[in-house]
Each structure stands twice: as C-alpha cells, then as structure tokens.
Amino acid sequence: MMKLTHKERRRVILTGIICFFIIGLCIISSVDNIIKIGQKKEEKKELTQRLNNLKDEEETLSDDVEKLKNPEYAARYAREKYLYSKNGEKILKID
Prior knowledge:
By secondary structure, the chain is mostly helical. Helices cover 79% and strands 0% of the residues.
C-alpha cells in the first residue's frame, strides 16, 4: 500500500469534507421539498373540498333563480320569507 504525503492526505480530507457538505445540502434540500409537497397536497385537498362546496352552492342558487322566474313562486317566496302580503291580507307572526 502506498503512503500518502502530507499534501495528498490534506487534499483527500478536504475533498471528503466538501463531498459530505454537498451531500448534506442535497439531503436537507430534499427533505424540505418533501415537506413542501406534503403541505401542498393538504392545501389541494382543502381547496378541492371548498370547490366542491361552492359548486353545490352554485347549483342550489341556480335552481333558486330558475324557480324565482315563476311569478307565482316568487310571490309565495316573498310572502313566506319577507312577510309580504297581498292587498287586504293580514300577516300573523307566531313564534
């Protein structure tokens, strides 16, 4: 086996330290990216749920708009919801 001179030994140690430093940075960067990916997946899941809720709400509101185009339904809805009355009609509110 060949003996290394002082300069060669120093160069090998320095190269090893630099390699370990670079590998460490790569590992830290990878772990950070894995954590960010997990957070983004969770955020995507929450936003997908919110989108589905908003689509359901939009569908309900669209149905209400279609129903309110019918004058009879609109009049009945106004009487029930906002206590409007026809001429000569009295409203009794019972709690």
